[in-house]
């Protein structure tokens, strides 16, 4: 088991991370441009991974885009911008986010710290603390908050992350599938372009 530290964000840092992700999505969707992080908060100079999720508030709500990675050599501010753009692109959920969707999207950001390569994910996984990333198939990951929100067991959490990676449930037990656990801080908009909370 190996691990490394990452960014530890204050509430103000987390709120700015979500704002930066939203600005990046809007700049990309409306103008086809890459937002620059500008004058960054100190935590945003950390070199660590991050994920961005876009969810539609229309109807019953649905995942509209997700992107990112648990490791990066780039500064956090740039990782958030790139993940937000990728989440809004057609590469994420099959179709690009359109300008008319922007008022109905909520944005969340998960910043990564304490990455753990594990040989025994079932034993090492702490529900509510660890996100899971699967390297194998097409690769897939889920936020640390997801199993708690859905009342999943550790085994179900690992199985569903495998399915997201286009692998069979239980593939996380295969020797050629690499499972990485990561701790993450999750910040999200309570409603589209609304106030921000840490989850």
Task: Sum up the structure in keywords.
199 residues, alpha+beta, Glycoprotein, Type 4 Pilin, 6 helices, 8 strands, 28% strand, globular
Provide a quick synopsis of the model.
By secondary structure, the chain is α+β, with helices and mostly antiparallel strands.
Mind explaining what this structure looks like?
The protein has 6 helices and 8 strands. By secondary structure, the chain is an alpha+beta fold. It has one domain (11-198): Hypothetical protein ph0010, domain 1 (Glycoprotein, Type 4 Pilin). Strands 1, 2, 3, 4, 5, 6, 7 and 8 form an 8-stranded antiparallel sheet that branches. A hairpin with a 5-residue loop joins strand 2 and strand 3 (62-69). Helix 1 (11-31) packs across helix 2. The protein is globular, with a radius of gyration of 16 Å. It comes from Natrinema versiforme. Pfam families: AMMECR1 (PF01871). Residues 12-198 form the AMMECR1 domain. InterPro entries: AMMECR1, AMMECR1_dom_sf, AMMECR1_domain, AMMECR1_N.
